[in-house]
Structure formats: structure tokens, C-alpha cells
Amino acid sequence: MSAVRENIEAMNVARTTSRLVLSPLTVDDVDDMFRVYGDERTWQHLPAGRHLDRGQTERAIEQAVRSRREHGFGMNAVRLREPVGSLAAGRFIGVAGANMMALGAWNLGYRFEPAAWGHGLAGEAAGSSLEAAVESAPDAPVTARVFANNPVSIRVLERLGLDLAWRGSSGAEPLGGGDTTHLERLVFADRDLDAEILDAVIALG
Ligand SMILES: CC(C)(COP(=O)(O)OP(=O)(O)OC[C@H]1O[C@@H](n2cnc3c(N)ncnc32)[C@H](O)[C@@H]1OP(=O)(O)O)[C@@H](O)C(=O)NCCC(=O)NCCS
């Protein structure tokens, strides 16, 4: 088998943790993902981010597919390998992973349906994602952005061993989406960030 083909196959392999399967997002996940991303309970800290139509979800999947194709990793569909709480094995519970941003750093993220919260699953998925991002592009820092009013997500990042790189509200011109630059936000990273990269991450809002 050629090295290129081997690489492509490695990229598309699902990752497992003790209770989860993380598989590359595909267009087949759009309904499941929209169920989670269209649920206002998953956007309590950023109501404007809620997906109101499937087109938004499709575009998020396209971004994940592009990140994986070009950088070896992206966001994943997360399914249970075993029952957790009231949820059955095989259940799609949400999305976790990291997309490569144009500024040259990974953007780590996760969003699960409320019934899956409180079982340590985000920590499990984020740990596997951090490992995969570093394996795929070791020279690119792994960053994560979170609002100060989201202590659960902050805890997940701290438990992962990421360091706080910045905390504040920048008032910078946002590079995309709604303007959240005035809100108190935190940036975490797996290593020291160059000033240029940190400024660019902060400017994302
Ligand atoms: C963020 C999210 C994925 C976390 O999922 P989860 O599976 O419940 O997270 P985990 O169980 O792995 O970890 C949660 C941690 O927060 C802690 N925690 C729970 N409530 C808390 C609170 N009010 N304050 C501080 N910490 C809290 C838990 O004790 C746990 O820490 P521990 O492992 O040290 O005990 C989930 O809440 C979610 O999908 N939220 C909506 C989307 C979102 O906010 N995404 C992140 C955007 S940056």
C-alpha cells in the first residue's frame, strides 16, 4: 500500500476511549449533530451560536472534513460504546475534536447533549482529541477558547492540563461571526503561544 494511501486511511480511523468512539464527522451525521447544535440548552453561554437550520450544521461538518483532509484531524462524531446514565450504547451524544485554524493553531472543542453531561465524557473525548491533534501536527499549538461564565468547560480544559494563556475582553474587531470580543473570555493552550498567534486567537472572539 502506498504511503499516501496509508496516511489517508490513518486519518479516517475512528479513535476509541474506554466509553466512547470518536469518528470523523461526515455528511451522514448532519441530523444527529443538528439535534445537539440546534438545542438551546447546549448554547447557554452563547445563545447566538445555536444552529437554526441544517445548512449551518452542514457547513460545520465541511469545516471538519477540510481540517482532517488538510491537517490529519478535525471534529468528530462522539458515540457511546456502552450505556451511560439513561443513554444506550451506540448513541450519538455530540461532537468533540479539534479543527486547524487558518492562523496555524488547533481549535479544540466539544458539545454534548444535556443527557450526557456530568459523567466525565467531555474529559475523555477531549483527552483523546488533544493527543490526536498533537500527533497530526506536532508543531501547531492546541488552543481552546471559552467564556468565563462556562466553569464546566473551563474545568475540562484545566483537567486536560492546558494552561491559561490569556483572560480578558479585547474589544478587538471580531474576525467572524457575532461580536463576542467584549465578553470575558479565556484562552487555553498546550504550550507558550507566540504573541502573533495569541493575538489572532483573541481576535476570534
Ligand atoms: C462542556 C461539556 C461538553 C462538558 O461535558 P461533561 O461530559 O459534563 O464534562 P465532564 O463531566 O468531562 O467534566 C465536567 C467537569 O466540570 C465540573 N463541574 C460541573 N459543574 C461545575 C460547576 N458549576 N463549576 C465548576 N465545575 C463544574 C465537574 O465536576 C467536572 O470536573 P471533574 O472531572 O474535576 O469532577 C457540556 O457541559 C456541554 O456540552 N456544554 C454545552 C456546550 C459547551 O459549553 N461547550 C464548550 C464550549 S467552550
Short note summarizing the structure:
One of its GO terms (molecular function) is acyltransferase activity, transferring groups other than amino-acyl groups. It is built from six helices and eight strands; from the N terminus they run αββααβββαβαββα.
What is this structure's SSE topology?
Layout (H helix, E strand, L loop, with lengths): L2 H9 L3 E2 L3 E5 L5 H8 L16 H18 L3 E6 L11 E9 L5 E7 L8 H16 L5 E6 L3 H10 L2 E6 L16 E5 L5 H9 L2
Parallel strand pairs: 5-6
Antiparallel strand pairs: 1-2, 2-3, 3-4, 4-5, 6-8, 7-8
Helix pairs in contact: 2-3, 4-5
The structure holds coenzyme A.
Describe this structure in words.
The longest helix is centred in the first third of the chain and has 18 residues, at 54-71. A hairpin with a 3-residue loop joins strand 1 (15-16) and strand 2 (20-24). Strands 1-2-3-4-5-6-8-7 form an 8-stranded mixed sheet, with helices on both faces. It has 6 helices and 8 strands. With 205 residues, it is α+β, with helices and mostly antiparallel strands. Helix 2 (30-37) crosses helix 3 and helix 4 packs across helix 5. Helices cover 34% and strands 22% of the residues. The chain has a single domain, classed as Gcn5-related N-acetyltransferase (GNAT) (Aminopeptidase), CATH 3.40.630. The structure holds coenzyme A (COA). Coenzyme A is lined by residues 42, 45, 110-112, 117-123, 146, 150-153, 155-156, 159.
Structural features:
single chain; 205 residues; alpha+beta; Aminopeptidase; eight-stranded mixed β-sheet; 6 helices; binds coenzyme A
